[in-house]
Every structure is written in structure tokens, then in C-alpha cells.
Amino acid sequence: GEDVEQSLFLSVREGDSSVINCTYTDSSSTYLYWYKQEPGAGLQLLTYIFSNMDMKQDQRLTVLLNKKDKHLSLRIADTQTGDSAIYFCAERTSYDKVIFGPGTSLSVIP
Amino acid sequence: EAGVVQSPRYKIIEKKQPVAFWCNPISGHNTLYWYRQNLGQGPELLIRYENEEAVDDSQLPKDRFSAERLKGVDSTLKIQPAELGDSAVYLCASSHPDSYNEQFFGPGTRLTVL
Fold it and tell me: How far apart are CA A17 and CA A61, in angstroms?
């Protein structure tokens, strides 16, 4: 079945760039998403990319999509302590279901 | 604009008891989702509504879980009877037909079954 995988933890120093990686299995995915979840809160959509694109930039966020390798990444430039959260990668499958990864916990060290 | 409202925020019950969660989506959002999020995992879809119609309930354990969205606005998710393995955060989300790709999530209900 469809699966989305992510590394579970990432630690970076404040001011550095963070790169969170994700792999997915459905080669027919239509959209791929990055969500952020802060403690005790629901998920917040950060950005998404259509499957025929290979890059999308939105202020400090850069999304790279390698469709051949089914690999998605999220780069956060100039990471701040407020960026500490869990980041979820998700894919919209060919039958219109959104599948979430397990989340990557980002810790930003001041 | 108010966000997705869920209640209660926390619920502790003993196994075999019933429990219900309530969700009020953002006004105008015709699509409503219920997800379950186990500790350390991403959300898993339980059921999706388009207005009052359940269009995807393939992952809803129908022996003990039920959901309704009678007037196509707010929704209730029920578990009866609850089991220890049902302990999780139950998230509700909604989306607008013009913003199909953006699901707005509520804060969730954290259920603990003892």
C-alpha cells in the first residue's frame, strides 16, 4: 500500500538551514504537502507542490521534488527557535486520499 | 474567522465505555475529515464527508466507530465500546471547495482509555 517515510528527528542551530526529507511510494501522486504541528495543536499547512513541478519557494521555505526517486524535501532557511515543531510530509494519492508520514521532530538550538 | 472547533479537548474514560467527539468546521467548508493520530505517528483518515455524505469511510472500524454529519455542518464521531488501543488524538479538519488542497485542522481531542 501507499507509504510515506521520514526521518524522525533533526536538530539544527539557530540561523542555520534545516532540510527535512521524505520519501513516498505512489508514483501517481498528484500533490505533495508539508504540514507543521506545534505541541497541543492541530496541523497547519505550510506549503504544497503539484507533482509536475520540481521546486517551489515561499519566503524561507524551499520545496524540492524528485519525482523519479519519489523524494521530497523541505528546506527552512535561517531557522529560528519558533520553527521547532513536528513537520509532516503528505501525499495525495491517485485515488484522492491524503497519506501522512510519521513526522520529523525539528529541534532548534539557540 | 473562527477555526475548526473541537470538543472536548481531553477525555479520559475506562475501557468499554462510550465516548463522543464533536467538531464544528469553518463556515462554508463543505468537506469534513476525521483523523486519528497515534503517538509518534502522522494522522490517519477515518472518514471524509462531502456535505452530509460520507464519501470515504473505508478506514473507519465500523464495529465500534460511527460518525454523523446530519445537516452537512457539524459532525460527531462516536466510539462504543472504547478499547485500550483507541487512546489517541482525534483530529477534525475541513476544507473549502475552492481551496481543495488546504485542510484546516482543529486542535484535536486527546482520548485516554484506561
Answer: 10
- Which run of H or of E encompasses B66? strand B65-68
Where b means 16+ CB within 10 Å and e means fewer, B81-103 reads: ebeeebbbbbbbbbbbeeeeeeb
Tell if the CB–CB gap between B4 and A45 is shorter than 8 Å. no
The pLDDT of residue A40 is: 83
Q: How far apart are CA A93 and CA A31, in angstroms?
A: 8
pLDDT digits (tens, 9 = 90+) for A41-71: 889 999 999 999 999 999 999 999 999 999 9
Cis peptide, bond prior to residue B81, ω within 30 of zero: yes
Burial (CB count <10 Å: 0-12, 13-18, 19+), residue A58: exposed
Of the partner residues A42, A48, A88, the one whose CB lies closest to the CB of residue B106: A42
Chain B: closest CA distance from residue A95 (Å): 11
